[in-house]
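Whiteboard transcription, Tuesday session. T.W. wrote the structure tokens on the left side:
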């Protein structure tokens, strides 16, 4: 079981909101079709963000990951853990400052695991983007003859 505080996902631009849905709830980068679908749903409609969060967490993929969704205003909501991830609503420098301040409280072993996970995620994103770029170049080459 993995508990997610939905209240922490409500802020940010529409793009940040959709990316955070996937990375926090589904533990992966959004696929192109899913990103477009959810971005169109929430674009300039902050009033439906909570429903979209609930839809993603309640999806087959979210249920398979044993995601339990909580909101701060839920009657039975448990307090958020002290070492929660920094919110993405602020500027990049604010988020970095918060992250650096919390790094001192994380054991070295956990930092190493997080480092490996980040490297794997960045590698996967880079490979996926490179493959898309190569496919686009191949299509352009075919058109040009």
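and on the right, the sequence the group agreed on:
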């Amino acid at each position: 079981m993995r508990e997610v505080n939905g209240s922490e996902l409500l802020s940010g631009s529409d793009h940040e909101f959709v990316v955070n849905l996937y990375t926090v709830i589904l533990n992966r980068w959004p696929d192109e079709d899913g990103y477009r679908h959810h971005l169109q749903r929430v674009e300039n409609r902050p009033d439906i963000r909570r429903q979209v969060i609930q839809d993603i967490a309640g999806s087959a993929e979210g249920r398979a990951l044993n995601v339990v969704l909580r909101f701060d205003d839920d009657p039975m909501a448990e307090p958020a853990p002290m070492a929660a991830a920094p919110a993405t609503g602020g500027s990049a420098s604010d988020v970095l400052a918060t992250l650096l301040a919390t790094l001192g409280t994380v054991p070295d072993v956990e930092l190493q695991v997080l480092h490996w996970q980040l490297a794997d995620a960045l590698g996967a994103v880079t490979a996926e983007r490179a493959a898309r770029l190569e496919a686009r170049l191949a299509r352009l080459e075919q058109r040009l003859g």
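Someone added at the bottom: Residues 2-88 form one domain.
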